[in-house]
Automatic annotation (TrEMBL):
Signal peptide segment: none
Topology with respect to the bilayer: Multi-pass membrane protein
Coiled coil (UniProt feature): none
Keyword Nucleotide-binding: no
Name of the protein this chain belongs to: Peptide ABC transporter permease
Gene Ontology CC: one annotated term: plasma membrane
Listed PROSITE patterns: ABC_TM1 (PS50928)
Subcellular location field: Cell inner membrane; Cell membrane
Ranges annotated as spanning the membrane: 107-131, 143-163, 201-221, 267-289, 309-332
Organism, scientific name: Trabulsiella odontotermitis
Length: 340
C-alpha cells in the first residue's frame, strides 16, 4: 500500500496541474472580460434604448450580480457548453468556434509538418558542418525568419506568386466556383474536397494552402532549426560522444544514432511550442490570406467590440495551449527515461 500511494500521486499530479491551470485560465479570461470598457448591454439594446430596457437586459445577462456569482454562473454555463451568443454574428460562440477552429488547426498542422521536418534536418546538418558557409547561410535565413514581420512577408508572397507570377491561388480556402459546391462535412478543406470526389476542388484547395502553409512553416522552421542545432552541438561535447569518435564512428552516425535520441525531449518541447505559437499567433496570417480561422474570427470580434466572442476564442486558444503542453510533458516522460 505504501508503494502504491506514491504511484497514484504521480499519476494524479499531472491531472491536478492541468485542472488548476485551466481554472486559472478561466479566472483570468473572466477577469479581463469583466474589466473590459465595452458595455455588453449597449451592444445588444443600442444607444437609444430606455433605462428600463437597459436594466432588464442587464438583469437577464446577470451583470447586476456580484462578480463571484457571475463567475460561478459562467462556470456552470461553460460546463453545459454555453459560451454565450456573439453579438457580431448572432450565433452561439461555441458554434462559431467549432466552424472556425478546423481551418486554423489544418493550417497550423500542415505548417508544423513542413517546419518540423525541414527544421530538424537543417539543424542536424548545421551541427554537422558548424562554422561552414552552409551553416552561416542557414543561420542567416532563420534569423530573417524571426525578424521579418509576418504580415509583410505574406503580402509580398501574394504580390509575387499570386498577382505577378500566378503560380498559386489567392486568399481564401477555395475559389468561388467551389466555395458553395463542396459540402463542409469536417471543416478541413482538404478532407472535404477529397470526400466530395471533385479532384479539381481538391487541387484548388492545395493551391490555396501553399502560400500560408509555407509562410507559417518558415517561421516555425526558423526557431526549430536554431534550437535543434544548439541542442546537437551541446550534446556533441559530452564524453560519450568522444568515446564514440574514439571507436571510429562517423559524424552522421553519431548524430543519428546517439545525439538525436538523447535530444528527443528537447525536440518534442520545441515542436510543441512552435505548434501552440502557430495556433495562437496565426491572426496576421489568416487576416492577410483571408483564412476563415480563429485568428480572423478574433480580429473581427475585436473590431466589433464583441467581448463574448473574444472571451470564447481566447479560452479555446488558451485551453489548446495548456493541453498541448501537458501532452508534450507526457510524451517526454514516456520517451525519455532520464525524466522518469
Amino acid at each position: 500500500m505504501s508503494d502504491l500511494s506514491p504511484r497514484v500521486m504521480r499519476l494524479l499530479q499531472p491531472l491536478f496541474t492541468l485542472a488548476l491551470t485551466l481554472l486559472g485560465l478561466l479566472l483570468v479570461t473572466f477577469a479581463l472580460s469583466a474589466l473590459s470598457p465595452v458595455d455588453r448591454v449597449l451592444q445588444i439594446v443600442g444607444d437609444h434604448a430606455s433605462q428600463s430596457t437597459y436594466d432588464q437586459v442587464r438583469h437577464q445577462l446577470g451583470l447586476d450580480q456580484p462578480l463571484p456569482v457571475q463567475f460561478w454562473h459562467y462556470l456552470v454555463d461553460l460546463a453545459h457548453g454555453d459560451l454565450g451568443t456573439a453579438s457580431a454574428t448572432g450565433q452561439p460562440v461555441l458554434q462559431d468556434l467549432l466552424a472556425a477552429f478546423p481551418a486554423t488547426l489544418e493550417l497550423a498542422t500542415l505548417a508544423l509538418l513542413v517546419g518540423a521536418v525541414l527544421g530538424v534536418i537543417a539543424g542536424v546538418l548545421c551541427a554537422r558542418v558548424a562554422g561552414s558557409p552552409w551553416d552561416l547561410a542557414v543561420r542567416t535565413m532563420t534569423l530573417l525568419g524571426n525578424s521579418v514581420p509576418i504580415f509583410w512577408l505574406g503580402l509580398l508572397m501574394l504580390a509575387l506568386f499570386y498577382a505577378k507570377l500566378q503560380w498559386s491561388a489567392g486568399p481564401g480556402r477555395l475559389d468561388d466556383i467551389y466555395q458553395f459546391t463542396v459540402e463542409a462535412k469536417t471543416g478541413f478543406v482538404l478532407i472535404d474536397t477529397w470526400l466530395s470526389g471533385d479532384r479539381e476542388a481538391f487541387r484548388n484547395a492545395i493551391s490555396h494552402l501553399v502560400l500560408p502553409v509555407l509562410l507559417l512553416g518558415y517561421y516555425s522552421l526558423a526557431s526549430i532549426t536554431r534550437l535543434t542545432r544548439s541542442a546537437c552541438l551541446s550534446e556533441m561535447n559530452k564524453e560519450y560522444i568522444l568515446l564514440a569518435r574514439a571507436k571510429g564512428a562517423g559524424e552522421m552516425t553519431i548524430l543519428l544514432r546517439h545525439v538525436l535520441p538523447n535530444i528527443r525531449g528537447t525536440l518534442l518541447t520545441v515542436i510543441a511550442l512552435a505548434y501552440t505559437s502557430m495556433l495562437e499567433g496565426a491572426v496576421l496570417t489568416e487576416t492577410v490570406f483571408s483564412w476563415p480561422g480563429i485568428g480572423r474570427y478574433l480580429t473581427t470580434a475585436l473590431f466589433a467590440g464583441d467581448t463574448t466572442a473574444i472571451m470564447g476564442g481566447t479560452l479555446l486558444i488558451g485551453a489548446s495551449f495548456v493541453l498541448i503542453n501537458q501532452l508534450t510533458d507526457v510524451l517526454v516522460r514516456l520517451t525519455d527515461p532520464r525524466v522518469r
